[in-house]
Amino acid sequence: MGDEPVIATNDDASECKRGAVQLGYWSDDYISYFVKHTEKRAPEINRGYYARVKGIENFVQKFINKAGSAAQILNFGSGFDTLYWRLKDEGVQIANYVEIDFPTVTARKCYMIRRNKPLLERIHDQDGEVKLSPTDLHAGNYHCIGADIRNISQLEVKLQQAEVRFNVPTLFIAECVLVYIENECVNRLLSWISSRFRSGLFVNYEMCNMNDTFSDVMLGNLRARGCNLAGITHCKSLEMQKTRFLNNGWSGSRSWDMVEVYYAINSTERHRIEKIEFLDEQELLIQLFQHYCICIGWLGTEFSELNCTED
Ligand SMILES: C[S@@+](CC[C@H](N)C(=O)[O-])C[C@H]1O[C@@H](n2cnc3c(N)ncnc32)[C@H](O)[C@@H]1O
Known about the structure:
This protein has a single domain (4-299), classed as Vaccinia Virus protein VP39 (Rossmann fold). With 311 residues, it is α/β, with parallel strands linked by helices. The protein has helices at residues 4-23, 31-34, 43-67, 83-89, 103-115, 117-123, 152-161, 183-196, 213-224, 238-246, 258-263, 267-274, 283-290; strands spanning 72-76, 96-101, 130-132, 137-139, 142-146, 170-175, 200-207, 252-257, 292-299. It starts with a helix and ends in a 12-residue tail after the last strand. It binds S-adenosylmethionine (SAM).
């Protein structure tokens, strides 16, 4: 099986995000530049995306609060994620932001950035230089690079072109990405990071508790779409998600299922989104949340106190 079905998961995620944004779950002025199509999804799916986006944003915020403007962000399997532009609008200063995905995905992203002034304007200053190839874009502190993260030597070359530094605090994001990658490749990536970077935080969002009937149905649905979940064996439990970091040279790790992440969101905000779409009963939502998690790993001691509660 080739990488196409995995690449297609980006379209699905982006469409779901755009749909939820349109309904008012969260605001994102940029997602509609990348994805034109939306389909109505079940309220549980919209709430699931809401918890995913808010959960990750919470750690991004905490990381930036600690790391300050020297911070560097590497977003693995970034797809059409819009975090860079959202942070820019919030006035957040960071040293470097790098998005990495298969060249087929980054080529489409680079094209859309070039075609849409509001996206382009925010990635470079008036007199700043924009370096472009069909799959890569470098402008100011923003870099979008086409690379397969299973291939460390290729990744290293590309990160060098993106001016990545190994001695500044670095946030690594993998939002629903590692589950598509063979375990030995994920281990190699995590080991490589822990051997090269001095201080950092990894935020990983994906499945967990994949060991019951509910998860069999979930996996059956995903596989029916032709998508190979090469890394699923590491999603059997929260414990396995955590030990993967420890076994690959990280200083520490912690994980929460999405039930915990969701109920840690500020209650006023949670009540606001719960009024957007009515849920007959909570059971399906809770079951979904029990099968996804956020797992963090840290290098050094700077990020060892972080947890999923909002400040
Ligand atoms: C489910 S999508 C998630 C996209 C984005 N992180 C989000 O949450 O909106 C998974 C992404 O991971 C990317 N991906 C999977 N395996 C990859 C690999 N080996 N190298 C680079 N990107 C990869 C896919 O191309 C796709 O864009």
